[in-house]
Inverse folding.
């Protein structure tokens, strides 16, 4: 029996959310649990993947929340279809399966994963966070970036690394061998491992040792970062822009963000996200520098001359800032939502204040600390943060004292 139900909120501007499950009872439970949100959302509840696809053909939705195991078209197939036909719909898996990593491995096309049972608050926060990012990445807003001459493509070596990580006979030696095949990549990784912020006491000259010391997550993020840097097609970069400075800054921010959360004994996932996002947070600058040499030179110049934050001048000139441009690229590459949102909001974390993110706070803090002397343009990253947020991070004085002794 097909169950279809609607919880209408009235009005056309409400977010359209579709819930799909093969069990009617689950859908009824969700409907009861989310009743209080009917003023904000228009919710549809449908049993079956095939029925959901038919519904979406007639009625586009902003968010789809689907069960994983369903007879006929299952959650993975459904979300793959949605990813292809309605790429701007936020895709969330709400699954009863215990093994999250196994589920995640089998479902590339989902933005978020939630396990059942899930309370109303978690569900609401997850849907809101994912939608916030989607709004930021809207077609219209990003048309400027997507029309650019050259956008870095996902490094081939990264895809190889990901498939290697999934294979049962994965080993550090295999990963190191893969890295070694690319001379440029090897050189860049060794340069960063040997930089002061990685705190390795002896000189590392062998990729296997680097993989051992840094761990696979860090290596994967470095591979991505190198991919952005090596994509620079135009040798004529703005004269006031230094690729090396961005590389060193990125390494330092990643490493300090990781240390902040390690010291605070946070979750491993948060610590890994902080490092990866820290490494990648300014990759949007490379896109601007490579594609818009003259314009970006003027933007950087104006930011310094008039003492205006770089991202404000970027926004005025291009309609998007480097944080949004970088997030757009990482999203295009299919990186996890958690990383994309940290990159997107690293200069305006308060617009993300509805939800807590330890990794975002750590990257913002590290960026503010590293940038205290003004690497991010005319106004140092620390001075761009509002007082309330700085207080949340422990106050300006405490932050500055950390940079002085780091
Ligand atoms: Fe930045
Ligand atoms: Fe930065």
């Amino acid at each position: 029996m097909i169950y279809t139900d609607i919880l209408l909120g009235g009005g056309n501007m409400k977010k359209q959310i579709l819930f799909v499950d093969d069990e009617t009872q689950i859908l009824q439970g969700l409907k009861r649990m989310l009743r209080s949100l009917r003023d904000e959302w228009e919710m549809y509840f449908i049993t079956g993947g095939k029925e959901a696809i038919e519904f979406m053909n007639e009625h586009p939705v902003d968010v789809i929340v689907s069960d994983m195991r369903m007879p006929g078209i299952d959650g993975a197939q459904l979300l793959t279809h949605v990813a292809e036909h309605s790429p701007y719909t936020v895709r969330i898996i709400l699954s009863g399966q215990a093994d999250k990593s196994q589920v995640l491995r089998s479902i590339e096309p989902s933005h978020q994963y939630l396990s059942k049972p899930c309370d109303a608050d978690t569900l609401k926060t997850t849907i809101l966070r994912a939608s916030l990012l989607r709004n930021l990445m809207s077609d219209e807003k990003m048309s400027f970036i997507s029309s650019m001459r050259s956008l870095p493509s996902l490094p081939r070596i990264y895809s190889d690394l990901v498939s290697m990580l999934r294979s049962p006979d994965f080993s550090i030696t295999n990963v190191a061998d893969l890295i070694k095949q690319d001379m440029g990549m090897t050189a860049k990784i060794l340069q960063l491992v040997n930089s002061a912020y990685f705190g390795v006491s002896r000189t590392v000259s062998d990729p296997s040792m680097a993989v051992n010391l840094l761990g696979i997550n860090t290596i994967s993020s470095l591979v991505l970062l190198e991919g952005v840097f090596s994509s620079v097609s135009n040798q004529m970069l703005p004269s006031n822009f230094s690729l090396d400075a961005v590389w060193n800054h990125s390494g330092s921010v990643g490493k300090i963000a990781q240390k902040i959360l390690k010291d605070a004994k946070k979750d491993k996932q948060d610590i890994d996200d902080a490092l990866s996002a820290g490494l990648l947070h300014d990759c949007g600058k490379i896109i601007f520098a490579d594609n818009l040499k003259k314009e970006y030179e003027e933007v950087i110049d104006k930011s310094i001359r008039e003492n205006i934050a770089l991202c404000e001048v970027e926004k005025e000139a291009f309609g998007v800032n480097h944080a949004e441009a970088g997030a757009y690229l990482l999203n295009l590459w299919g990186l996890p939502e958690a990383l994309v949102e940290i990159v997107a909001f690293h200069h305006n974390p308060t617009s993300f204040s509805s939800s807590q993110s330890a990794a975002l706070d750590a990257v913002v803090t590290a960026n503010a600390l590293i940038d205290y002397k003004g690497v991010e343009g005319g106004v140092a990253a620390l001075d761009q943060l509002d007082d309330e947020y700085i207080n949340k991070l422990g106050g300006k004085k405490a932050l500055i004292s950390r940079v002085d002794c780091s």
